[in-house]
Queue: 3 jobs
Job 1
Amino acid sequence: MLDDKRLPAPVGLRKKVRIEAENFQAFENCELETRNDRNASHRLSVRQSKVGTGRIRISFDQPYAADNGICDVEVRYFDDKKGRSELKLYVNGVQQLSLIHISEP
């Protein structure tokens, strides 16, 4: 394309952008874990390093996503099989979702 001195056609905006936990940029009290599970993409997951609060963060700056508008966010996670777990979703520092799960020992 460049040999002919023609610019490539622009790529359109994507309707869906998938960001997985292992693609996040900042991990607090969390680490990547290799899983022998075909249901886990790339056979990777993120788990807490120790008891307490764990956080993963990412700046959503995707070149093929719209600059503004309303987005649907789908969150999938493996819950702890025992005890209490909580998941919160923040957008621009504002909490959008909170899920609490308590399992019987």
Job 2
Amino acid sequence: MGDLLHRSKIDLNQHQLAQLWRYHNLIRLRNQDRELTRIIGFEPMVIKHYIDSMIVGDLVKLPSPIVDIGTGAGFPGIPLKIRYPHLKVILAEPRPKRIVFLREVLAELHLNDVEVFEHKVVSRSFTVPVKGVITRALEPIEKTLLRTSGALVTGGHLYFMKGPAVEPEIKNALRRRGDSFRLVCDQSYTLPHTDHQRRLLVFEKIADLPS
């Protein structure tokens, strides 16, 4: 695992590698009954889950606290927390089986300043002030802008980890919510040593949404 990470210019210390390895083994152990991921090969898991999550920190500086909406098995929040221990992370996940898994991970990896929000995030359910929101291929951008409007502070940022064909989502979000959000980063990249194309979009909240 360390070689794959190093090849992607992600260098973790021994403690961080041990945490990531324990996390990987927990996913493998619980995957069948908790429905955590369809990707089960070792190298694809490292590249598409761990590296794909951690590499965001090379592209932008992430704020703290940050909420990971629709985190599922903990992507990208847990790999980011392992790589950047200073981050305060809120893992938002409504599905009971995955909530149980996330709590097991936090206990086993001894991760501090990480919370699990056990509900669906909507503007009235999630109102804890945060500076950042991150999602990975969860839903159309505009829906995330709406559902986080009760928590994201003005000047806060939303980080969208998307595939390359996201232009219609961008246009729709700016057309409908351009008075409250602006696109401040649009970066295309490829996962190292693969042909997997990604696109990182960052929207900044410039005003509250109209009532």
Job 3
Amino acid sequence: MNRKWRVLSGFLFMLVLVGVVLLKVTPVYSSSDLTDPRLIQRGRYLVTGAGHCADCHSPNTTPDDPQWLAGYLPGTPDQPFQIGEFQIYQANITPDRETGIGSWTPEQVFNVFRQGQDKHGNTICPPMAWTAYRNLSDRDTWAIVAYLKAGIKPVKNQVPENTTPQGTRLDCTPLYQNLQPLPAYPGQNEIGVWRK
């Protein structure tokens, strides 16, 4: 009986150890982890690299810029964006509570990337590439949220509202009414690398 107990307890110990190692390797993040330095650093990598956020939301593409991610600034070349008859003003995505996303919940910021909606449920207009960002993993999306909410300084910069030539708020919802979800892997023209 003593030998069986030692084997069983050794097996249970190994299961717990493997579980702890897996949790350290593949952490699961949520809105409660936004101050995790690893998550913020991952968000910085995504925002400054693959996400190209500064290309639209900042006049300069360096976090040293005092207007880093503050959105539309009058006098900046090629701003606002002219899309058809509409002028689209780049949003202030700093954590400023009055003019940026500081008053938004982390879940509301997450939904910009996942569902293309602002905190009021309005559809985000082009050229914001939320339809591409919606395919990011939860971890990467939370990393971007962490960087934007807890990794940069707030910048007070009131950006004008996107409006139609008639002066009404621009509604971009019809642009995405036929948007389809990403198909399960492998798609019809993909080779499944994880075959059974």
